[in-house]
Amino acid sequence: MKKWLHNWRLFSLFSMIALLLAGCGKPFLSTLQPAGEAADMQFSLMLLSTAIMLLVIVVVTIIFVYVVIRFRQRKGEENKIPKQVEGNHTLEIVWTVIPIILLIILAVPTVKATFDLADVKPMNKEKRDKDTLVVNVRASLYWWEFEYPDYGVITSQDLVVPTDERVYFNLKASDVKHSFWIPAVGGKIDTNIENKNQFWLEFDQERAEKAGNIFYGKCAELCGPSHALMDFKVKAVPREEFDQWIEKMKNAKKPVVTDPVAKQGEEIFNKSCIGCHAVTPIDKRPEQARTAPNLANFGDRERIAGILEHNEENLKKWLKDPESVKPGNKMTGTYAKLTDEQIDALTKYLMSLKVE
Amino acid sequence: MSTAVRKKSLIWDYLTTVDHKKIAILYLIAGGIFFIMGGIEALIIRIQLAVPNNDFVSAGLFNEMITMHGTTMIFLAATPLLFALMNAIVPIQIGARDVAFPFLNALGFWLFFFGGLFLNCSWFLGGAPDAGWTSYASLSLESPGHGIDFYVLGLQVSGFGTLISGINFIVTIITMRAPGMTYMRMPLFTWATFVASTLILFAFPPLTAGLLLLMMDRLFGGNFFNAALGGNTIIYEHLFWIFGHPEVYLLILPAFGIFSEIISTFSKKRLFGYSSMVFAIVLIGFLGFMVWAHHMFTVGMGPVANAIFAVATMTIAVPTGIKIFNWLFTMWGGSIRVTTPMLYAIGFIPSFVIGGVTGVMQAAAPADYQYHDSYFIVAHFHYVIVGGVVLALLGGTHYWWPKMFGKMLSEKLGKLTFVLFFTGFHLTFFIQHFLGLMGMPRRVFTFLPGQGLETGNLISTIGALLMAAGVIVLLINIVITTFKGEKAEADAWGLGRTLEWAVPSPAPEYNFAQTPLVRGLDAYWLEKMEGKKGLTPAEPLGDIHMPNPSFLPFVISLGLFIASFGFMYHNDYSWGLPVGILGLVITFGSMCLRSIIDDHGFHIHKEDIIEAEKKGVKA
């Protein structure tokens, strides 16, 4: 597609739009600063269509402005009756054929990209290559679960992926429909309840660094009161770093707590929270039983509840009243009211959950 | 019985009327009220999003606001307001005395009205629907309370009304045209009404089916969409969009029709390429049905379906482009008089082109993976619906106001409305394209600081306030005009081309004393150019047969309104089922009455018509 674009006459217009648009938004979020193969393909299609459409707008605007200025009724012409023109077949054919040509120019790369982006053969091979990374994404009311089936590792809220290779996703929802979207890295796909969707994304090392190695992910389908707050983060790291991380996750045992306050927190956790939350990345329960985010590497996370800055103060706020942070979430009311002391202890414990 | 004898109170008159012009006014008032409600909801949405982390409304209330804003604007404002103009103008434009089924026309209005009323009762009875105007099945099944039940029942009732009105227009246009009014002599607004009504005929049944299944699931223990029990929510999405996409065209085609009339009138030229305009309208209507799945590119239909629907969607740009260029060339060589309606038409062309081209951009499926459910989409469809349909409604209202009410709206205030509304509109929505591309999903009740979304949202909110100011000026204009407006002539703008400008403003109950003979396109213009004062009659003057007014349409609709409440609460209260049945008894009982009562209508006598016509000429 790249080569094809180079030959395009509108190249200059094209690069101008690219310059204009590329300044927009934050590199960790904006689709206008694509940071991977899928996003690149989509971005060039966006540019191509924008260029064609700008061309149309320019032509219409020129005719429009000319007509409105030139043919306004002047003073003293109130009774002038212009010639009643019937139409003009040649002209009408011209503005039927030109749009058709423009659309063909757009349709060909569209169809090609549609099929390229849907190419998930490597993940579905009988015996897939061991380097092909597959992630199962499960969306639930206001949190995300990421499972690495080839490693038996489960994590949530923070997705960790290697850069410079295609990462394949299986996606579904556990309660209502959501939509998985990492704007800077590629377009979204819905997570449905009744079936599994598959697609791939690629994270570019260089551009990931520019974005601070963290991309923002969003839920794009209205799913309830806290739809706006159903964010997740993607940590894109070089392959070696990813391998190290997954190794640590694979071998992570139940954390050993020594600090007395944290110990107290662990007790509270075991009494009130463990029914839903797991604290090791290896969680053998079926997914229906995994009704809350896995907290194995909670201390390493980017954000609390996907949105708040990761610090003790915010964690306390969340534990005290989840409803005030994420309205309609499923954690509110599932445990007895905690005293400030208990919250402090729990915070200490949760912050100590780390694999790195 | 003659008109002079039948004196009734104004309210009773409107509750029982079957006259298409009065029903038009009812549609205009009810649609206008709903439009203002939808507008207030929009303002609340924009105020909440003016700054990051705002807490003007809660997350739950915000979702109710967006749901009701969308539902109200599409079903209860845009469609009925178009019906208002269609009802007021189409029968006169084709030289008919009324629509084909006046009784059904009234029934259509009252069903729409009670459906809308029912939907809005939800605000006071425990919470409005909150699953978005599409009400996708998985979320709408989860939603607690009765909000979604109000949605499914209210829309079914008002949907019947729309369907009935649509069928009525189809029959009217096919069978009631004046002699000589061939299909290829019909004004474009009539053509657009005809095609839009056909869209209603085919699009509303799938919606009703989808809502019915949803109602079964929510109220009667069905499991059509319950995935855990083998249901499928994606089917709901298909059913919804098989309706939802044509719905867009059934809104925009009449808008095209309105602007075709306005542009040709105020350019003093016949429409350029009339036959290709007709062809384009029909083609758009047809293609509108073939492309619904482009709302579902990210659902995971696979590349084959996505590619087919992508290319099919793009083709719609061709007939739309034909129309744009034909309008431009209608103005070309004309003598353009810039009145308020013409201002709307001039503003419409570039606005709609922007909305149209972003539509083509979305048709490129892989690019849509980025646009879908982001603010880019919000910007796009508001460019189409506000930049197309609402501008058409405002332009059309200014244009036909004298015909409907017999008074001219103030041009000065009209132009002020346009400037405020048009500036506000672009300020609100243009920036939203960029917000979407910068990663802002739609339907979010808040956004976090530090993601680069602050400035755009603030600008957008300021624009929304300007639009509101424009609407307020319009209301002031209407109030002033009502009390001391200048009386309108029959040919109010002096440039009328079509039949409606040949009858007095407002038109008499019977429209035409004598059915006119149509001798070509722009029939009235033709006669004027030949130096004649009025139309050539096709029949001798005689008694005119008119239908009797009836209270039954109101009662039939009221019955369904009551039944809706009953069935909605039948799981909660023991009175639910009896009330539901009572409502149905009222509805079907009145239908029975309608069949039994032998109603022959009445005649307006020749002498009375001669008298009335004399007065009309004097005024």
TrEMBL record, chain A:
Pfam families: COX2 (PF00116), COX2_TM (PF02790), Cytochrom_C (PF00034). InterPro entries: CcO_II, CcO_II-like_C, Copper_CuA, Cupredoxin, Cyt_c-like_dom, Cyt_c-like_dom_sf, Cyt_c_oxidase_su2, Cyt_c_oxidase_su2_TM_dom. One of its GO terms (cellular component) is plasma membrane. Keywords: Cell membrane, Copper, Electron transport, Heme, Iron, Membrane, Metal-binding, Oxidoreductase, Respiratory chain, Signal, Translocase, Transmembrane, Transmembrane helix, Transport. GO terms for molecular function: copper ion binding; cytochrome-c oxidase activity; heme binding; oxidoreductase activity. The keyword ATP-binding does not apply. It is found in: Cell membrane. Residues 130-248 form the Cytochrome oxidase subunit II copper A binding domain. The chain crosses the membrane at residues 41-69, 90-111. Binds a copper A center. Its main location: membrane. Its cofactor is Cu cation; heme c. It comes from the Bacteria. It is a multi-pass membrane protein. Belongs to the cytochrome c oxidase subunit 2 family. This is Cytochrome c oxidase subunit 2.
TrEMBL record, chain B:
The keyword Membrane applies. The lineage of its organism: Bacteria, Bacillati, Bacillota, Bacilli, Bacillales. Pathway: Energy metabolism; oxidative phosphorylation. It is a multi-pass membrane protein. Its main location: membrane. SUPFAM superfamilies: Cytochrome c oxidase subunit I-like. Keywords: Cell membrane, Copper, Electron transport, Heme, Iron, Membrane, Metal-binding, Respiratory chain, Translocase, Transmembrane, Transmembrane helix, Transport. The chain crosses the membrane at residues 24-45, 65-90, 102-125, 150-176, 188-216, 239-259, 271-292, 304-329, 341-361, 381-401, 413-438, 458-480, 551-569, 575-597. Its cofactor is Cu(2+); heme. It catalyses: 4 Fe(II)-[cytochrome c] + O2 + 8 H(+)(in) = 4 Fe(III)-[cytochrome c] + 2 H2O + 4 H(+)(out). This is Cytochrome c oxidase subunit 1. GO terms for cellular component: plasma membrane. It is an enzyme of class 7 (translocase). Belongs to the heme-copper respiratory oxidase family. It is found in: Cell membrane. One of its GO terms (molecular function) is heme binding. GO terms for biological process: electron transport coupled proton transport; oxidative phosphorylation; respiratory electron transport chain. It comes from Parageobacillus toebii NBRC 107807.
